[in-house]
Amino acid sequence: MLAPMFERLFRLSERGTSVRTEVLGGATTFLTMAYIIVVNPAILSFAGVPIGPSTIATILTAVFGSLLMGLHANRPIAVAPYMGENAFVAFGLAGLGVAWTQCLGAVFVSGAVFLVITLLGIRAWLARSISTSLKHSFAVGIGLFLAFIGLYETGIVTSAAAGLPPAALLLPGARTLRAPDVPVRIGDLHRPEVLLAIGGFALIALLMARRVRGAILLGMAATAIAGGMLGLGQAPRGVLAMPAFSEWGAIAFKLDLPGVLRLSFIPVLLTLFLMSFLDTLGTLVGVGAAGGMLDEKGDFPQVERPMLVDALTCMFAGLAGTTTSGAYIESATGIREGARTGLAAVVVALLFAASLFFVPLVEAVQHARYAYGPALVVVGALMVGSLARIETGDLTELIPAFATIAMMIFTYNIANGLTAGLVLHPVLKLLTGRAREVRGGGVALALLCAVYYAFGRPH
Questions:
Q1: Which of 390, 400, 453 is nearest to 428 (CA)?
Q2: DSSP string, 260-300
Q3: Rounded to two decimals, what is the model's pTM?
Q4: When comparing pLDDT for 421 and 236, which is higher?
């Protein structure tokens, strides 16, 4: 009875998939990104946003965005509040004395701007103006960025400052911390959590090499069970709890629009606008490359639909009480499991909705970094395959692509990498007498990115 309805809504057979594959893919995506339920409220608490209501806002935004992505765009891409943008709000804007209500207003306004330029076709025009090599560098950079997150979260790689006494990091004769001579180093390979993560990575890789369906999900589950048996899991403070919607009222619809719509706030709006625009564009290209969804020019077909979802979700996020939201790169894990339609995104939305009643249990699960971290590393490794589509023989294509990849990883920020590549590409083409190869949208993006560096608040 349900099968014909799913076929009609999501065109499963047309995309060579099935209900089982989509459910499996959606579950895999949810497990690799559900950390946002815990992490996003924790980060926003530094800006003064109360954690309880913020948790509900985070979940509701993920439900709204993922459901809309599935039903309207019919793509297996989950949506939730972005990492990076939340840190910009919590540690950048809050440090400048910007109230969290103004931050929510800025999120809403940036979403409204996205909506207008999406409906006018400007966002799609800009996306199509980016060179094929640069688009594939987005996928490579994001893949390595994901791998770095997974390595760091599991402890396989750690900060060089980890374990050092505070005095060792102080500048001589000052109370200011200095940057370590070596930013990162290998972790403690004797820790059981690190050994579990390495074993989990090897297991997922083996299962994928043997073409076992559900390899990522099975590997994560097996690693989590092994960790629990070794006593490394964190006992939940409970299992079920009713959602505290009455508490959510403390932040819902509390955005300060008048405080945002003034000239002094333009750098903030510009930063949020470009970060979200580029994060979404990079994510769509990245997951599109991972799932073979890009056309021969490296474009994402019908990109207007997911971009419209992104815009509406940004506006919803501002109203709900959380930060800029959009397409999640962790969707690549579900796509690697075979997800090809919006049914996978709907599954993600339903699982997020269910998590409203299982917040205590979800909190405990998300501490098992040794279980979900290896999945990010594996997916990152798979995404590096897009290197083959970069024109390495043409320096005007290679250098911007390299800058994109390097800046993403080494500044720990996707938007920084995208802006660097988008500025360098037309500049190199112009200086080498090949300006005709640059489209108008590429020039517009380069100018916007240059303004971002000059007057925005990059971090």
A1: 400
A2: TSSGGGHHHHHHHHHHHHHHHHHHHHHHHHHTT-S-TTS--
A3: 0.74
A4: 421
